[in-house]
Amino acid sequence: MGSGMTAPNLLSINSYHYRRGGSDVVYLEHEAMFREIGWNAAHMSMHHPKNIESSWSKYFVDELEFGHKYSALEKIKMASKVIFSFEARKKLSSLLDVFPASVAHLHCIYHHISPSVLPLLRDRGVPVVLTAHDLKIACPAYKMLNRNGICERCRDGTFLNVVANRCVRNSLSASIVVAAESILADKLSLYKNNVNRVVAPSLFYKNKLIEWGWPDQQIAHIPNYVRSEKYIPNFWPGNYFIYFGRLAPEKGVETLIRAAIRSSSNLMIVGSGPIENELKAIASGSSIEFLGFKSGDDLWNLVRQSRAVVLPSEWYENCPMSVLESYALGKPVIGANIGGIPEIIQSGVTGWIFESGNEAELSELLHVVTEESDSILEEMGRAARNYVAKEFTPEKYMSSTKNLYSSIGVSF
After folding, report:
1. Which stretches within 37-123 are classed as H helix?
2. Pairing mode, if any, of strands 128-131 and 149-150?
């Protein structure tokens, strides 16, 4: 900020105002980071029982949770809000009346906030940045995934593929609503005409969005970061592998379990999710341990004592924080060659890569890492820690984001 200039106003918009998932953590920490350097900050979100207390909550939209039970009339109202929320536009208009934003940084807005807010921000002259935490602005099914695996049928076809293949929760009704939302957004170019820049945390996401029709110049690659100094590393390798994360089909945990049984590897699984019981059944009779959901020091202590972390994903991961966090804890990572994962694993230096979904290859790799000397693994853990501490820092994230804001006319 130049001398005598008033501080810029950052408006952050995200569906959830608590640490529900990785995208919500980025939303909260991004705002906190800019507050720390003297920017004024406001935010808009959705009312939710778990929300962090906020002085801006009167501008939040009403709660909308798809897992709740609604009457037929409520479902119709909910569907219309998903497609185009007039409530969100009205609340945002009131917020902008009292907080003239210098820039609006959006995170996950679809379904709960909806793209209805985008033309309003443009009409008010507010530059808009959207972080692509997933692939929603290309594909209606934001993971580019259905019950049969990776799916990109909509790229050269019609969004009605979402309905035909029931891509959203394997539900016809949910798929219809999401297809309608995406068709409207596409026909009106709600995203492309009203978002000045899209932040892609991985080069894979940047390239994938370009493949689906987004202009190269509209997308900026800014990776995620960790505050590595807050993680206490342990470089000496333990005798077990660890997976931590959600227990869902696309995470590849079933492949990992079968590979661990095949190679007689020690494996700990930390997390919960919809296929937990199914995975436990597959692992029955083996030495694989399921430890449930863990966070904070309870989780980090388990990671510190491991031999290596495994990320066996079978969907287009972005720039997974689990890899960066493992590095910060001094652990190399075995990662699937899919999405943005191979961008942040230096094969043979900070970890190893295997073909996503290939049980035999992963099994062989688990065996190789089990037999590898402790001194080599210690060296790789140190290399991983040095890599994340140098390349994935808050300072780099802040510098890149400020340069991006400056390029779209934000003065500070």
Report:
1. 72-83, 86-98, 117-123
2. unpaired
What DSSP line would sit under 352-397, residue for residue?
Answer: EEE-TT-HHHHHHHHHHHHHS-HHHHHHHHHHHHHHHHHHS-HHHH
Domain 9-137+191-225+393-407 has CATH 3.40.50.2000: yes
How many Cβ atoms are within 10 Å of 402's Cβ, its own excluded? 14
371 vs 150: CA distance, rounded Å: 34
Give the number of other Cβ atoms within 10 Å of residue 99's Cβ.
18
Angle (CA) 336 339 341, round 5°: 50
- Is CATH 3.40.50.300 what the domain over 228-391 is classified as, yes or no? no
Q: What are the pLDDT digits (tens) for 150-198? A: 999 999 878 888 998 898 888 888 888 888 888 888 888 899 999 999 9
The residue extents of the domains of the chain are 9-137+191-225+393-407, 228-391
Contacts of 18 (CB under 8 A, 6+ apart): 24, 48, 50, 51, 52
Q: Which helix (H) or strand (E) holds 220?
A: strand 219-221
